[in-house]
Amino acid sequence: MVRLMGNDAMNKTRLILVLLLAAFVISVAWQVGSCVVANLELQDDMQDFASQLSSHIGLTNPLSEGDLSSLVVSRAQRYGIELEPKNIIVHRTGTGETSTVYIAADYTRSISLLGFPVSLRFTPSSKR
Q1: 3-state secondary structure string, 41-61?
Q2: Beta bridge partner(s), residue 106
Q3: 126 with 101: CB under 8 angstroms?
Q4: How far apart are CA 107 and CA 73, in angstroms?
Q5: Mapping DSSP to helix (H, G, I), strand (E, B) and coil, where does residue 26 land?
Q6: In whole angstroms, what separates CA 117 from the centre of its chain?
Q7: What is the pTM of this model?
Q8: Which of 5, 26, 50, 77 is the Cys-Cys partner for 9 at CB 3.0 to 4.6 Å?
Q9: Per-residue pLDDT tens over the stretch 23-58
Q10: Alpha-carbon 124 to chain mean position
């Protein structure tokens, strides 16, 4: 004769499943959220770099494309983002104090879902 689980056993099983699901959702949200926040911070810095306020008011000379690219790489490292200069585009229009700079990057971050790696692609830019 087969005995079915009692209410207590079923309730405990449901509780365990709900707790496991909650832990999974929290883990995924934490991983994705930290990647998104780092990307937003980098994008904000890229907008600041592209504005070159100090050069527009004559305090400093405008930074070169290479200098801007290096700044983005070093700032990305601060946020735990592995970025190489080849993944960064710096486009300048105009010259001197009237120049406009556009900076964009393209990178991926990996997160783990139940032990399987999942890549998230980010494309922050200074938004012309």
Answers
A1: HHHHHHHHHHHCHHHHCCCCC
A2: none
A3: yes
A4: 11
A5: helix
A6: 16
A7: 0.80
A8: 5
A9: 999 999 999 999 999 999 999 999 999 887 666 666
A10: 8
